[in-house]
Queue: 4 jobs
Job 1
Amino acid sequence: MSNVVTVDLHPVFRNDRDIDNVVRSAIFRAAGQHATLVEIIPGKGAGTLKKRVLALLRQPHMRKLYRKVEEDPQNAGRILVHL
């Protein structure tokens, strides 16, 4: 994979606004760097954080910024956003 931006959400998992800001800024930064992939790590846990991130990515203003979102088949605690 050429240019990959990785974001670990563990440090901000308690604050919804911080989660949104971190995910948004990572996608904007990746687009600016012409990255091909953003790797978001919500962790495995109960899945609440992953659901929140996926809901954010489904919003129309975010949907315009990427081609495809998938859960990493090898690691359930990772979301892959293809730009």
Job 2
Amino acid sequence: MDHIISALIHASRTGDLLLLQEIIDLNTNLELRDDKGYTPLIIACYNHQTEAARLLLRSGADVNGIDTGGNTALMGVCFKGYADIAELLIAHQANVNLLNGNGGTALMFAVMFGRNELIALLLQHGADLTIKDNRGMDVLDIAVQQGNEQGLQLLKQHQPINQ
């Protein structure tokens, strides 16, 4: 990995806004990936660096960019439980229904890890309860499997009437 990519990834991970801005000012491609396939935005979000994520988004980072597993920044924050960054990503038009390489969605991550505040947020922004992952499971199935009773209740409140 060359020194610009290394610096970009480091600045995104640590929230070093001055360094990040310097790198952006060089017209650096913000979709460069580290050796694990993570974009700077995914790294900033996963490490709860809200201002770094905001700067990257304002500078043109792809809000729906994916890592090598097909995971987006929104999926990562739903796993970690960072509602503030999820709101930022959604405000920048993150697609709440993208599928990763296993057919999982951000809502599935929120349900699986008991991030009920994020479940409510995603549902408010059009998350689809009917999507099934590669195992054939939808979010209701995942909530039951994980014993997430509060999440299950939230999902049932938003379940389409014909189900």
Job 3
Amino acid sequence: MRALAILNPNATTTSSRTRDVVLAALSSDLDLEVAETTHRGHAAELSRQARRDGVGLVVAVGGDGTVNEVANGVLDPASPATTVPDVAIIPGGSTNVLARNLGIPESPVEATGLFLDAWRSGRRQRIGLGRLDGRYFTFAAGFGFDADVIRAVEDQRERGRTSTVPLYVRTAVRRFFQQPERRHGSIELVADDGEPVGQLSVVIVTNCTPWTYLGARPLRPTPNADFHGGLDVFGLAGLRLARTLWHVGQMATRRGPRGRDVVSLHDSGHMVLTTDEPQPVQVDGDYIGDRTRVEIAAAPAALRVAY
């Protein structure tokens, strides 16, 4: 089987020695080519070309951003190839949300062992994704405050800071108090052609749970989300300090946030988010710009993962 391993050389938790061990193990079972990413979007370009070339498997060695790009590359509808490669995930980022939600070990070596066992036995799983304005996300998309935090963290990473849990926490606190209006938001949500829900400050859309992790602690704004269902939504009307802290605490429980200022939707197929002033948008933890309107849809059983 022809396979392409796409490595992010800047992945937070993968050393060159570990990558050598992983690649040696993969090469024992696969006709393996290896490519390192050099710029943002490169993993998507490489995966898109792999599909055109008839490669049967793309292995993402990196964090959630690398996995997102690989998914978008192999699923690119503009590709003339009819067969979509399988995907494998060897975690190497700081959080690895998708891998952890699938039960893939955080250790790259153990994850490689799990994949090889799945590959030899023919074990594959199809998972549902989401699409935001045509871009797939593998676990979550956000509009508003959470994307604003990610944008600020990315600014600091470009200046040389390392992505860590304390960096995210400090940035979230700082950006919270810098919001121009915390009593109510400006985002309007219309899901499945239902009634509009307005004045939201943050909207998080997921296809699985947890949404993210603070170290070992999972956060579940949408505790009923499932890879085999539609999309779940958490929305928060306003960012009042006491209520926001309360809801963040609820995310650490299995029931998730609840209350009169919380919007919770389960198993939605389509939604539109609009706002008068541009708001930041993120997919799978990557800031992708500011927009006044986004359209999000479920993509059932879109990706086949070997694990």
Job 4
Amino acid sequence: MTSNLDTKGQSRGDRARARAYFRDFAPAMAAYVVAIVAIVTWGGLDGENPWRFVWALVPVVPVLGVVRAVVRSLRHADEYARLVQLRGLAVGFAVAMVACVVLGMLTAAGLSVPAGPWLAFGAGMASWAAATAIASR
């Protein structure tokens, strides 16, 4: 006989933490998307104006909001949720570092990889998400 405590759904506390995370994460991610679209559209990143370097860094501000959301979420998570996130982060970090080494060596060998940093970023983020999903099963 199983206990009524062994439910497959989320607890009330888990749902409250997920809502709090979404309230922190969603506005920061929306601001990031708006900043990227605005910078690419009106930032003049391919021009000669020295301000283009400042405009290129504008999306970093909303990314700091995303970091804040993740840190706050981890601070309020239980031990198991922290372990799952740590495993996902570790895999994402390792994949991003390997991607950086591969892209760096290819660039050093003369291959032009214009989107190289974005490829490494995407590989790290995608593997973080996948590893976290697998670890939480």
